[in-house]
Amino acid sequence: MRGVILYGAPASGKDTVTAALHQLHSQYQQFRRLKVGRGRTTGYRMSTDADLATLRASGGVVWENRRYGSVYVIDAPGLRQQLHRQIPVVHVGQVDAVDAVRLAFPDVRWTVVALTCPRDVAERRIVERQTGDSAERLRVWDETETVPTADLTIDTSRSSPDVAAGLVDQAVRHSQAAAG
């Protein structure tokens, strides 16, 4: 089994690169994290506090974080199911999240891709989204660490989404060939 972890700060291009990957090969599919809270619903599986409590009690939470007034969760049952059907593309912005996913699924060949862009580019992208929380997203951008275990780093201000997707696909295929 294979998976992709796209690591990056807000507005680094995770959604855009994932869409280009899916266009390149339909086997790449964004892993839709669970979300409890307000705001954007696209790209998430909306859940409730009660369902999240049940998932926590069962040990089904791989990674959980709070941002923008919501809780975001990578759940083991959902990710396991997707791994058997597709190549999930998991979006994260914390180094510990990369480690948690790898630890929870050690038999999966994970390709970790760090997406970056200059702060002024991120700021423009954030403002264009009109989410109403630009200052908080920029603060998170400033706090996002560099991931030391990336297999590939792409500056999305210098690479088109199609080029970035091609580089990710090439890295995934190379890791598969090296394993096999």
What is the helical fraction, as a range of percent? 40-55%
Structural class: alpha/beta
Give the oligomeric state.
single chain
Tell me the radius of gyration. 16 Å
First-residue to last-residue Cα separation: 12 Å
User: What is the strand arrangement across the widest sheet?
Assistant: 2-7-1-8-9
Q: TL;DR of this structure?
A:
The chain is α/β, with parallel strands linked by helices and 180 residues long. It contains seven helices and nine strands; from the N terminus they run βαβββαββαβαβααβα.
Question: How does this model look, in words?
Answer:
The chain is 43% helix and 27% strand. It is built from seven helices and nine strands. The strands form two sheets. Strands 2-7-1-8-9 form a five-stranded parallel beta sheet, sandwiched between helices. It is globular, with a radius of gyration of 16 Å.
Question: Descriptors for this entry?
Answer:
single chain; 180 residues; alpha/beta; five-stranded parallel sheet
Please render the helix and strand layout as text:
Elements: E1 2-8, H1 14-24, E2 28-30, E3 33-37, E4 44-46, H2 49-57, E5 61-67, E6 70-75, H3 76-83, E7 87-92, H4 95-104, E8 109-116, H5 119-129, H6 134-143, E9 152-155, H7 161-179
Parallel strand pairs: 1-7, 1-8, 2-7, 3-4, 8-9
Antiparallel strand pairs: 3-6, 5-6
